[in-house]
Design goal:
Helix content is about 35%, strand content about 20%. With about 450 residues, it is α+β, with helices and mostly antiparallel strands. The strands form four sheets. Strands 10, 12, 13, 14, 15, 16 and 17 form a seven-stranded antiparallel beta sheet that branches. A six-stranded antiparallel beta sheet has the order 5-4-3-6-8-7, with helices on both faces.
């Protein structure tokens, strides 16, 4: 519960300009990754709020750790329990080599740690129905964004793998009832790690689980989309990954946007402090924000995600903005391109953005509302149904990076849902919205979350 802290400013970490000396990956280092990505940071009115956002505070995403021997932690397969801030060992032994085969990624057997993200659809579909399937990947993307930043601040290389044999990963983790899907892997590379020397036999896991509700139900459309994207073999994973490497994707932002870089450098809080301060802003005041702050936050949000689902230095996403009150920018619709904001049409009206965001005041009151989008046709043609997962998850990464960047500069931000077709029509694009973030000046000063030692034991 006493976690190590990084020393670099969050703005450097989010900019991607980190040359940190690698720290040790031991039990405390793993606890830091887990807490600041998916741990409980606030308890308000009996609701447990976590380090990464989730629509309706429903948190459908689970985290598992597959590791070799770490200081203070034997090799094994573990489930992370956020409420208790505990690891539960599911398998005793070194299963990295087996996971490496399932992911068609031999390097996993030589890395000390691989985190597996899964999604339990009923936690969100009971409220959002079929659309709740997207929330699995939005939430997973937010957790991934935190993990990438935390790893970078510790001097570790982290990579996102969306190609793997679904059934093999499910068997390794013992997934079953309730319905639970493997969503993605995050590998963590640390110098000096020892390689796996073998793989224990994979016995079935039979675990008692607490019922999610008295009458859980499935949603066939979501289950069908998940099954349609499954990969049956390591050979299929390699083929899918090769197709992703040749995908005609958009170039990701390579450097900080020009503008108020000085303001970014002046913010000295660590990434851990920013994650604790980040919380979905509930009210904005209709005041303007600096253009440089918006440009820097967009640059930080749209950097390439190191992964296997897109070519290097590329992205599946396009980014559109409704700008209401940004100093030096004409109110209007914009596209983020080549590291800058390009005006599409002057005259963005707050009531129109409010309508696009399902009538939520936050969408219209924000200084700028950002729509992370993707042209799904070429993605699905190249990557099949699994490409839909990739686009949604990268949207979650960009949205969380944007929120972290806003909070690092003392601004506010929150994720929003939207009217899909109306958003595409408003920006006159064939790209479909993946996720929306409102950014602006908060109407209040939020109390930051707490670290594990400061929270009551549950």
């Amino acid at each position: 519960r006493e976690l190590p802290d990084s020393s670099l400013p969050a703005t450097e970490v989010l900019s991607g300009h980190v040359l940190a000396t690698a720290s040790a990956l031991d039990l405390a280092g793993l606890a830091r990754l887990l807490f600041f990505s998916a741990g409980v940071t606030r308890i308000l009115h009996g609701v447990l709020f976590r380090a990464a956002p989730s629509a309706g505070a429903l948190y459908p995403t689970e985290l598992y750790a597959v590791c070799g021997p770490l200081a203070d932690l034997p090799a094994g397969v573990y489930h992370f329990a956020p409420a208790e801030f505990a690891l539960r060992r599911l398998r005793d032994g070194d299963f990295r080599a087996r996971l490496a085969v399932a992911a068609a990624e031999p390097a996993i057997a030589r890395l000390p740690l691989c985190l597996v993200l899964t999604g339990i659809p009923w936690r969100t579909t009971w409220k959002y129905r079929e659309r709740g399937y997207r929330h699995l990947f939005w939430d997973a993307g937010a957790i991934v964004a935190n993990l990438l930043a935390l790893a970078a601040a510790a001097g570790w290389d982290a990579r996102v793998l969306l190609g793997f044999v679904d059934q093999e990963v499910s068997s390794l983790l013992g997934l079953g009832e309730p319905e639970e899907y493997p969503l993605g892997l995050v590998t963590v590379a640390v110098p000096g790690a020892s390689a796996a020397t073998g793989s224990p036999p994979l016995a079935p896991i039979s675990l008692r689980t607490r019922p999610l509700s008295r009458s859980p139900r499935g949603y066939p459309l979501g289950a069908g989309v998940q099954r349609a994207g499954e990969l049956p073999s390591a050979e299929a994973v390699s083929t899918w990954r090769h197709q992703a490497s040749w995908l005609p994707a958009q170039p990701a932002t390579r450097s900080l946007a020009a503008g108020d870089a000085g303001q970014a450098r002046a913010a000295t809080d660590t990434i851990e402090a920013v994650i604790l301060r980040r919380g979905s802003t509930r009210r904005f005041v209709r005041r303007s924000m600096p253009r440089g702050a918006l440009g820097w936050a967009m640059a930080a949000a749209t950097r390439a995600v190191p992964g296997d689902f897109v070519p290097p230095r590329a992205t599946l996403l396009e980014h559109f903005l409704a700008v209401h009150a940004v100093q030096g920018l004409t109110p209007g619709t914009y596209r983020w391109s080549d590291g800058d904001l390009q005006l599409l049409r002057a005259g963005a009206e707050r009531h129109r953005t409010h309508s696009l965001c399902l009538g939520q005041d936050l969408g219209g009151d924000a200084a700028a509302t950002v729509f992370h989008c993707a042209q799904l046709e070429p993605i699905l043609e190249a990557l099949g149904a699994r490409g839909y997962r990739a686009a949604q998850l990268e949207g979650g990464v960009a949205a969380e990076r944007l929120q972290l960047a806003a909070f690092a500069l003392g601004l506010g931000a929150t994720g929003l849902t939207f009217l899909d077709d109306e958003v595409s029509a408003f920006f006159d694009t064939r790209a479909a919205p993946m996720l929306t973030v409102a950014v602006g000046v908060p109407a209040y000063r939020a109390r930051p979350g707490r670290r594990p030692a400061q929270l009551p034991r549950i």
